[in-house]
Design brief:
Number of strands: 8
Distance between the termini: 14 Å
Helix content: 40-55%
Shape: globular
C-alpha cells in the first residue's frame, strides 16, 4: 500500500496545525499534530519528574537535552502512558488516559517543550508513535511538525514547508492568545521569542528544522488561512488522487 501522508513542516506560528487540520477535513483524512505529542510528554515530565529537576541539572552544567535522563523520560511516556488516540479523525494526546489537548498549551509546557524535543531518544520514541498511527489509518493522514518531511516520513508523496515573517507569526501568536494590545513593543517581544525558537530548532544536532529538498515552500505572510488551505488541497489532489 502506498504511503498516504501529507507532511507539513515549518517554524512556530507559521500556521502548520491550523492548515493541516483544515486540509485533513477537506480531504476526509485524519490529522496528526506531532507537536501535541511532544507537549504531552513535556507535561508528563513536569507533573511527574518535577519542574526543578531540569533547572538543577542545568545549574550543574548540563546543556539542553540533558536536563532529564533520556531513558527516564521515555520510560515515563511508555508507562503512564503518553499516547495518541484517534477521535473523530483527529489524533488526540492523552496522558494516563486523560485528554490533555488543552493542558499542553499552558505557558509552563511551552517554556520547556524545546528541551524535551531536543532529546534524541524522545524524538525516536515520538517518531515511532507517529509511524504506527499512520500505518493504522488507510484513508490518509496529514501530519504537521518540524521534521515530518525530512525525518519521520521522508517518502511522503507531498511535503509542504510553511513559512512567514517573524512579525506576521508574532501577530498570529498574539491573536491566538487574545493579546496584541501592547502595540509595537509587544509585537517585537513576541517576534524575538519566535526568532529564538527558530534558531534553537534549526541548529539542534538532531532533526533540525529545515525544508526537505523536495518540499513545496509556501510563504504564508500575505496569505489568509483559507488561501493556505486551498493551496495545499490543490497540491494534494494533484499528487494523491482518489
Amino acid at each position: 500500500m502506498s504511503l498516504r501522508v501529507i507532511a507539513i513542516d515549518g517554524p512556530a506560528a507559521s500556521g502548520k496545525s491550523s492548515t493541516a487540520a483544515l486540509v485533513a477535513r477537506r480531504l476526509g483524512w485524519a490529522h496528526l499534530d506531532s507537536g501535541a505529542l511532544y507537549r504531552a510528554i513535556t507535561l508528563a515530565v513536569l507533573d511527574n519528574l518535577g519542574e526543578t529537576a531540569g533547572e538543577k541539572a542545568r545549574e550543574r552544567g548540563k546543556g539542553k537535552g540533558e536536563t532529564w535522563g533520556a531513558q527516564q523520560v521515555v520510560s515515563l511516556a511508555e508507562g503512564l502512558p503518553v499516547r495518541l488516540v484517534l477521535v473523530d479523525d483527529v489524533f488526540r494526546p492523552e496522558v494516563a488516559g486523560v485528554d490533555v489537548a488543552r493542558a499542553i498549551r499552558s505557558e509552563r509546557v511551552t517554556q520547556r517543550v524545546s528541551e524535551i524535543a531536543a532529546i534524541p531518544e524522545v524524538r525516536h520514541w515520538v517518531n515511532v508513535q507517529q509511524r504506527d498511527a499512520v500505518q493504522g489509518h488507510s484513508r490518509g493522514v496529514v501530519v504537521d511538525g518540524r521534521d515530518i518531511g525530512t525525518v519521520v516520513f521522508p517518502d511522503a508523496p507531498l511535503k509542504v514547508f510553511l513559512t512567514a515573517s517573524p512579525e506576521e507569526r508574532a501577530r498570529r501568536r498574539l491573536a491566538e492568545r487574545g493579546g496584541g494590545g501592547g502595540g509595537d513593543a509587544e509585537l517585537r517581544r513576541e517576534a524575538d521569542v519566535l526568532e529564538a525558537r527558530d534558531r534553537a530548532d534549526s541548529t539542534r544536532a538532531v532533526a533540525p528544522l529545515r525544508a526537505a529538498a523536495d518540499a513545496v515552500v509556501l510563504d504564508t505572510t500575505r496569505l489568509s488561512l483559507e488561501q493556505q488551505v486551498q493551496a495545499v488541497v490543490a497540491l494534494a489532489r494533484t499528487r494523491l488522487p482518489g
